[in-house]
Write a structure and sequence with these properties.
The protein has one domain: monomeric porin ompg (Porin). It is mainly β and 345 residues long. It is elongated and about 70 Å long. The protein contains three helices and 17 strands. Strand 2 and strand 3 form a beta hairpin. It has a twelve-stranded antiparallel β-barrel. A two-stranded antiparallel sheet has the order 4-5.
């Protein structure tokens, strides 16, 4: 049996026995990368040009509704066909991600509205893989007559290495004494690699925008820092699936101790909550919402390679309290090289 055929079978069977289960955000993922904002969230860099490489590693799993959102590529199959299937099974998903987000940022030399203004572009490139396992608790009959006996399992997998959707960004930030704050906008442009029949896609095939406000309090005498960022993601409809992901809220933060202008350690965390349900003809399982939280260590270190300053950040975040989302572990490594501007501390 081909992977695509099996994927369609999984779609039909899981929809039949799980129509009352919740799932949130199409394919259980968002255009805003949770955990991307941590230490110095509210600080704007000096004028200049900055190039960054942001490496993101993630491994997580899901069952129930969250698994459905990963294994259910909506193909427009009519709901009445689901009712004809008598199915009972356990569904589990394991997902792995390894990608790099390359970015270029320019900060204007002149103030705008009394603050520092910057614009930039981000491009994700990398790998995503999904393994799906269906365990039959009773005999399952697929639409073409194939029977999966009780106690038998069906496994499929899919993976991709591709370029995702580019994102345009702009921010405006201010500072006063120990306080630093800024507003950042993000726009997802749906031109990355995507097929509605794939179990995994680098692209989202939908327009989406994010607006985030962040603030940092940093005492240069003690080196103590507290940073918080709150934002919302607003999603357009995916025209290939007629699926519209609901509005998503994300809260991120970090508490850090700076031992020098170049070295700091602390704790980073995030919380995700979908605040409005999914909608559209493609959201066949309803308008349910998801959430997840994470916490872990964060380290920042600035160094010089020759005469070139290099800003680095490393953190690991462990997820918990997930509902209708993947739950796992995320690792972040950021390397930033400024040209024409000094690192901000």
């Amino acid at each position: 049996m081909t992977m695509r055929r099996v994927a369609v079978w999984v779609m039909l069977v899981t929809a039949a026995f799980a129509a009352e289960r919740a799932y949130a955000a199409e394919q259980a993922k968002s255009i805003y990368l949770l955990g991307v904002t941590a230490s110095m969230a509210g600080v704007t860099p000096p004028s200049g040009t900055y190039f960054s490489s942001f490496t993101y590693l993630y491994s997580g799993d899901a069952t129930g509704g969250a698994a459905l959102s990963l294994t259910l590529p909506i193909t427009g199959t009519a709901l009445p066909s689901f009712a004809t299937l008598q199915a009972n099974a356990d569904l589990g998903v394991k997902a792995n991600v390894a990608l790099d987000v390359f970015s270029a940022l320019w900060v204007a030399p002149e103030h705008v509205l009394g603050g520092n203004f910057g614009v930039g572009i981000l491009l994700p490139v990398g790998y995503q893989g999904v393994d799906v396992n269906v365990n039959a608790l009773s005999s399952l009959t697929f639409p073409d007559g194939t029977v999966l006996g009780r106690g038998r399992s069906l496994g499929i997998s899919d993976n991709t290495f591709a370029v995702g959707d580019p994102l345009a960004t702009a921010f405006l930030g201010w500072n006063a004494g120990n306080w630093h704050w800024k507003v950042t906008g993000l726009l997802n442009v749906p031109v990355g690699d995507y097929s509605r029949n794939n179990l995994v896609n680098m692209g989202f095939n939908r327009w989406a925008a994010d607006l985030t406000g962040s603030v940092t309090w940093l005492d240069p005498q003690s080196g103590f820092e507290v940073s918080v960022a709150v934002g919302s993601t607003f999603n357009g409809e995916n025209p290939a699936t007629n699926y519209k992901t609901g509005t998503e809220l994300h809260l991120e933060g970090a508490v850090m101790q700076h031992f020098s202008k170049d070295f700091a350690v602390g704790i980073a965390a995030y919380h995700y909550e979908q605040v409005t349900g999914d909608s559209g003809e493609g959201a066949v399982l309803g308008d349910f919402e998801g959430r997840v939280s994470a916490i872990g260590p964060n380290l920042t270190y600035n160094l010089k390679v020759g005469d070139v300053p290099v800003l680095t950040s490393v953190r690991w975040l462990h997820e918990f309290n997930a509902k209708n989302r993947l739950q796992g572990d995320a690792g972040f490594v950021t390397v930033t090289i400024p040209f024409g501007g000094a690192p901000a501390h």
